[in-house]
Design goal:
It contains 8 helices and 9 strands. It has 249 residues and is an alpha/beta fold. An 8-stranded mixed β-barrel has the order 1-2-4-5-6-7-8-9, surrounded by 5 helices.
Length: 249
């Protein structure tokens, strides 16, 4: 009798395993699995723009996402049409928010910074704003670095916070000649399952965009996935330190 019961039990266990597999599969109900690079803890986040269309921010948070960088504009001419809804929705869901602007080096740096500053006039978010540098705009490495520094100084002065620099290792090496902005926190874009390459002269990353093809419940289609190097408490402390550091200068 005992031998006759073994087959049904095995089949039942197999069915349970299959069902759990569908429930826990990253593309179905959880964010895509993060790379296992850091020896310490990390916090999962995303960055979004109007490309993601309408977002169910409550579902995003239930999936384990704890912070979001949200685009304000692409330079001066392309204001992100979903920024206000994303900014409000992420706040209501309890995510820590930071705004980012795609920087156009062939447009006036101060005017671009002022656009972001005006956008954040009523609600600055919880995380420092970001300058997204991935297009040289036909400028020399020296001129690109000068314009980026102008943007950073303007935002620092007006918002009282230390901006984050987003860039890729190859871009920074080839298009900026490794200009030294290492005083700014680094958000590195490197799509790999291994540890990201850190563009010199930075020696560590604060945020890491590790894929542009992630899946998160509440968002239709692909989304950029990010990690913060540390615990959630570390992330909160990082935001507070950024404000204090800027205020002390």
């Amino acid at each position: 009798m005992a031998k006759q019961l073994r087959i049904p039990v095995v089949l039942l266990l197999a069915i349970v395993a299959i069902v759990l597999g569908f429930i826990l599969w990253p593309g179905a109900e959880e964010p895509a699995l993060a790379p296992t690079c850091e020896a310490g803890p990390t916090v999962a986040g995303i960055d979004v723009s109007y490309y993601q269309n309408a977002i169910s921010w409550k579902r995003v948070r239930r999936a384990g996402i704890r912070f979001a960088f949200i685009r304000t504009s692409d330079g001066l001419d392309n204001h992100d049409e979903r920024f206000a809804k994303n900014w409000t929705g992420a706040k209501r869901a309890g995510l820590l928010r930071g705004a980012y602007q795609y920087f156009r080096a062939d447009q006036d740096a101060t005017t671009q910074a002022d656009l972001l500053i005006t956008t954040l006039a009523k609600d600055r978010g919880e995380l420092p704003p970001v300058i997204d540098i991935e297009n040289p705009g036909g400028k020399s490495p020296e001129e690109l670095a000068r314009r980026v520094q102008t943007w950073i100084a303007r935002v620092r002065d007006k918002l009282g916070v230390e901006p984050i620099v987003y860039t890729g290792p190859e871009f920074w090496r080839d298009k900026a000649n490794g200009a030294d902005l290492s005083a700014q926190p680094l958000w590195v874009a490197h799509y790999t399952r291994n540890c990201p390459t850190i563009p010199a002269p930075w020696t560590k990353w604060t945020f890491w965009q590790h894929t542009d093809n992630g899946r998160v419940p509440g968002i239709e289609g692909a989304v950029d996935l990010d990690l913060f190097a540390g615990t959630y408490r570390d992330l909160q402390d990082f935001a507070r330190r950024s404000i204090r550091t800027s205020a002390s200068r």
